[in-house]
Specification:
Layout (H helix, E strand, L loop, with lengths): L1 E4 L9 E4 L6 E6 L24 E5 L4 E4 L5 E4 L4 E5 L2 E4 L1 H20 L7 E6 L1 H11 L7 E5 L6 H7 L9 E6 L7 H13 L5 E5 L7 H19 L2
Parallel strand pairs: 3-4, 3-9, 9-10, 10-11, 11-12
Antiparallel strand pairs: 1-2, 2-4, 5-6, 7-8
Helix pairs in contact: 1-2
Amino acid sequence: MTEQHTPFTADTPPIEIETGQNPQWSVIWMHGLGADGSDFEPIVAELGLPDAPAMRFIFPHAPLRPVTCNGGYVMRAWYDIISLAPDTRQIDEAGLLESRALVRHLIEREGARGVPSERVILAGFSQGGAVAYLSGLTHPAPLAGIIALSTYIPSARLVSNDLAEANRQIPIFAAHGAVDDVVSLQLGEQAVKLLRALGLDPEWRTYDMPHSVCMDEVADIGDWLGRLCSRDRDR
């Protein structure tokens, strides 16, 4: 398993971990508000993935920006959150679309490195999961899947209007803490309800945890990734 930094258009290049030589799959994993790309780096070793096929995990860092709901404090954020309530978020859609553009750049870069979009998985936690949802559901080329952890759909309008035909059946693993006091379970359920209304079939899991990740969830993510890769191999 190797780790390296590679060029990126943001202020700091992403962290990369490869589980073997010549990766055939890539996972682009976005961190939560105020964290950075190192936040989920340790999770790779805990997923219990098989030796083959090799996977490349890419952990980008969100840009530094003031966050209104946090008193304008400058932190790593994929977009500004103007206000928040248990059942809703008011966000800066322009910033959200800028982050989608960064994700699209990373997807294109993987294609240039030999991993086509249909073998790229978008993953994210909290605000990073919101970016994964929007980027994956509206990407014009087919993607392999979306992992959305303790998150929500940041703009139902953008997803509904821009849902890409190529990703109308994209596999989705969505998970949430039952006692999450940062991103309420209600917001996670709203996202799944919208996905199902749009004709998607997300795999929905809840865990007895707050706004975090637990080992049962990590094991389920590893199992889901293994099934996803096996299904593609058996086609």
